[in-house]
Amino acid sequence: MSESIHVAVGIIVNPAGEILLAQRADHRDQGGLWEFPGGKVEAGETVAQALARELLEEVGITVSHSEPLIRIPHDYADRTVVLEVHEVRAFSGEPRGREGQPVRWVAPEQLSDVAMPAANRPIVNAVRLPAECLITPPLDSDEQWLSVLKKSLHQGVRLVQLRLKELAAERVDALTRKALALCHAHDCRVLLNADPQQFAHLPVDGFHLPAGALSRYPARPVAEGRWLSASIHNRAELVQAARLGVDLGFVAPVQATATHPDATPLGWAGFKELAAAAPFPVYALGGMQRHDVTLARQYGGQGIAGIRLFVEGED
Ligand SMILES: Nc1nc2c([nH]c(=O)n2[C@H]2C[C@H](O)[C@@H](COP(=O)(O)OP(=O)(O)OP(=O)(O)O)O2)c(=O)[nH]1
Ligand SMILES: [Mg+2]
């Protein structure tokens, strides 16, 4: 295969939280589809430099600061691209299509309805997902479990993975419904760690699959429009998760953790390698503290996840 094409892609966010899209001209590859402005990284340029140059050329804005969001390798039939996606919130100038292309602002929740190149699906997921995810602790009592959830919601969590292992189906059902009522009142999305087919009737936002379950499904077991996430500990599981078309992954353990004392930590270097290869956003899991979010982003992750993230004084 020929060498991959590095592309600097800008998620330009306005003060209302909307994202700028531009339409590719019909005669170009991916013609007629909507894209995030950007273009090829030229020899000798950093991604940030290429992005600043492309955004000035294409939409007439001057970038003051950009932050890496996600890196997506993607094979098209005729070429391989690596999209280096940065978020741009600090810029001057009013964006306009300087090459005659139509541009428009779109709310993050509406991005999934726009026709975009295939490589953009994980980018849209990364834009829509928060930087922190709570995983619920082992269940001692319903009250204790729900109180951790409430406390975390008050601290701003916007994504929760409900872990209700080894419970009877009726208990999973009842607790999930209680958690959903709390979470949705706080605009927090809910992933249920349970069999997606068995619990398809629950109005959760998505399902989470443990790594050991990935090989059990011949195809994505969750309809489009609902999230699918997976636990990933190594390259082989990452490949399985990609085969199923998961939307997000939890890579673990990044650091030593009390819940899995026998597992060998990946370290940030191991996390970085898996994050770079993942064609979807990944959270760092295992021994995370809230301030690790900066490191996780730096190493190519979407952010951090953990059971004790929002409980003060613990890791
Ligand atoms: N800019 C941009 N490119 C994307 C997106 N999604 C996606 O698959 N691509 C692909 C399409 C192209 O093969 C490649 C980007 O190249 P480009 O055509 O924008 O490059 P460029 O601005 O430097 O244009 P040119 O001067 O080479 O014509 O990446 C996206 O959201 N934004
Ligand atoms: Mg371009």
TrEMBL record:
SUPFAM superfamilies: Nudix (SSF55811), Thiamin phosphate synthase (SSF51391). GO terms for molecular function: 8-oxo-7,8-dihydrodeoxyguanosine triphosphate pyrophosphatase activity; 8-oxo-7,8-dihydroguanosine triphosphate pyrophosphatase activity; 8-oxo-dGDP phosphatase activity; 8-oxo-GDP phosphatase activity; metal ion binding. Keywords: DNA damage, DNA repair, DNA replication, Hydrolase, Magnesium, Metal-binding, Mutator protein. Its cofactor is Mg(2+). GO terms for biological process: DNA repair; DNA replication; thiamine biosynthetic process. 8-oxo-dGTP binds at R24, E35, F36, P37, G38, N120. It catalyses: 8-oxo-GTP + H2O = 8-oxo-GMP + diphosphate + H(+); 8-oxo-dGTP + H2O = 8-oxo-dGMP + diphosphate + H(+). InterPro entries: Aldolase_TIM, Mutator_MutT, MutT-like, MutY_C, Nudix_hydrolase, NUDIX_hydrolase-like_dom_sf, NUDIX_hydrolase_CS, NUDIX_hydrolase_dom. Mg(2+) binds at G38, E58. It comes from the Bacteria. It is an enzyme of class 3 (hydrolase). Its EC number is 3.6.1.55. The keyword 4Fe-4S does not apply. Coiled coil: none annotated. Residues 4-131 form the Nudix hydrolase domain. Belongs to the Nudix hydrolase family. This is 8-oxo-dGTP diphosphatase. It comes from Thiohalophilus thiocyanatoxydans. The lineage of its organism: Bacteria, Pseudomonadati, Pseudomonadota, Gammaproteobacteria, Thiohalomonadales.
